[in-house]
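User: Please fill in residues for this 457-position structure.
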């Protein structure tokens, strides 16, 4: 039966042609002759233009090529290429074919691409136009007091990565600090300083709560010296931004006019000699005594208390009749050097008298007055610089200080009339002065002596 055979041959050729793509699909089908009975059932029409359901791809595009031409999209053997829109990633088969079982050879769908979630920037925030999907732009902002370093925005790119690099927020706003107001204060009485106190400065910062405030210079509640002192404060935030402020502390010393020393005398003043509270005492040179007030004080109104004193040549009465009356005139004013000799021809006396005459200037600088007791009764006499003394005064001195008439001797009395030292032989001027300087002068007198030591030449 050539027709039948011919029909079989045709079927075989078709099978071979198609089997390369759909071998498994046709594994359940059997080739039969036209004369053999065929079981009843749906008859497959391979020419049906809608063999497979019409392909579609949400958020993507399907491009199909059919063996029957471009106008067919789902005929048997049609091959479709799957592509996704921008911002989507293809999941599944990128190419499918319509099979004999009326199904496509695979499935696919488009999943939206996403960038990773951006980290939350310390001290900053961001807002995005579309979240974290492709083409979404995220704009970064910083908290007050911070500045963005880097790009101000990032865009989710088609490959799922963010553009540029993540910006950071840095604190570049310096803190603010307010110092106390400048102030002035009068120095304390008798001093050149005054204590000044103030409240700590106020420091604030837009970013940090913990601030490091540093004092530069002298601190509160301490003694400031005369004049203007600049007090500075510095403050640092955690980012080491710095700010500073300053104010002035001025100490005013009230002063009186400078006192002039008296003629034939000098002044010794406390503190700075003429500041408020300073005390100046009047002193007179040897052979002179003070007339008037002993000291003056610089007052708050910049004037001195009292009136200036004068140094007058010392006067004493030699015609008194008792030793005590004579000594009272020198009390706290002069030291006394009493020289006693049996007669004027005594060799020790004559030698000592010669040295005393030559050292008169040095004795005056040390406030020493010489009293001479000469001879024995009835021709005994006493004198102070050729001024004679009453016989009862001579006897009183000898009795009070036990001064013998039998031999040469010297006696030194301090300013209070106290017997301090005796000598029974002559002394050079240097030896006598050395003793007085070491044992009778106070510290102030020594300082004064050093200033005028060259006065006597």
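Assistant: Residues filled in for all 457 positions:
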């Amino acid at each position: 039966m050539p027709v039948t055979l011919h029909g079989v041959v045709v079927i075989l050729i078709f099978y071979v042609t198609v089997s390369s793509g759909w071998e498994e699909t046709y594994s359940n089908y059997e080739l039969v002759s036209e004369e053999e009975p065929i079981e009843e059932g749906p008859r497959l029409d391979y020419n049906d233009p809608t063999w497979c359901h019409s392909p579609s791809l949400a958020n993507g595009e399907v491009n199909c090529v059919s063996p029957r031409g471009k106008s067919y999209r789902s005929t048997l053997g049609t091959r479709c290429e799957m592509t996704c829109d921008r911002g989507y990633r293809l999941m599944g088969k990128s190419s499918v074919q319509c099979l004999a079982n009326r199904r496509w050879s695979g499935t696919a769908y488009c999943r939206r691409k996403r960038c990773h979630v951006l980290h939350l920037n310390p001290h900053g925030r961001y807002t995005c136009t579309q979240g974290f999907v492709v083409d979404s732009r995220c704009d970064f902002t910083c908290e007050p007091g911070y500045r963005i370093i880097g790009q101000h925005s990032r865009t989710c790119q088609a490959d799922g990565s963010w553009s540029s690099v993540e910006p950071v927020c840095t604190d570049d706003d310096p803190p603010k600090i307010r110092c106390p107001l400048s102030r002035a204060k009068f120095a304390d009485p008798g001093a050149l300083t005054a204590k000044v106190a103030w409240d700590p400065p106020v420091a604030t910062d837009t970013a940090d709560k913990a601030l490091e405030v540093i004092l530069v210079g002298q601190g509160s509640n301490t003694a400031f010296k005369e004049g203007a002192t600049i007090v500075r404060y510095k403050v640092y935030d955690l980012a080491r931004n710095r700010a500073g402020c300053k104010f002035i502390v001025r100490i005013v010393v009230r002063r009186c006019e400078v006192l002039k020393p008296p003629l034939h005398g000098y002044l010794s003043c406390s503190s700075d000699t003429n500041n408020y509270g300073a005390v100046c005492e009047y002193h007179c040179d040897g052979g002179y005594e003070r007339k008037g007030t002993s000291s003056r004080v610089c007052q708050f109104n910049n004037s001195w208390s009292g009136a200036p004193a004068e140094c007058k040549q010392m006067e004493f009465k030699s015609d008194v009749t008792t030793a005590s009356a004579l000594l009272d005139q020198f009390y706290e004013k002069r030291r006394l050097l009493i020289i006693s000799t049996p007669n004027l021809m005594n060799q020790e006396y004559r030698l000592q008298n010669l040295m005393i005459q030559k050292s008169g200037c040095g004795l005056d600088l040390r406030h020493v007055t010489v009293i001479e007791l000469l001879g024995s009764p009835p021709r005994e006499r006493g004198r102070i610089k050729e001024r004679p003394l009453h016989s009862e005064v001579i006897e009183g001195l000898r009795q009070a200080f036990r001064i013998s008439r039998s031999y040469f001797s010297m006696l030194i009395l301090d300013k209070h009339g106290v017997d301090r030292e005796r000598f029974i032989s002559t002394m050079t001027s240097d030896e006598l002065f050395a003793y007085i300087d070491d044992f009778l002068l106070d510290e102030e007198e020594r300082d004064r002596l050093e200033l005028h030591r060259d006065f006597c030449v």
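For context: The chain is about 15% helix and 30% strand.
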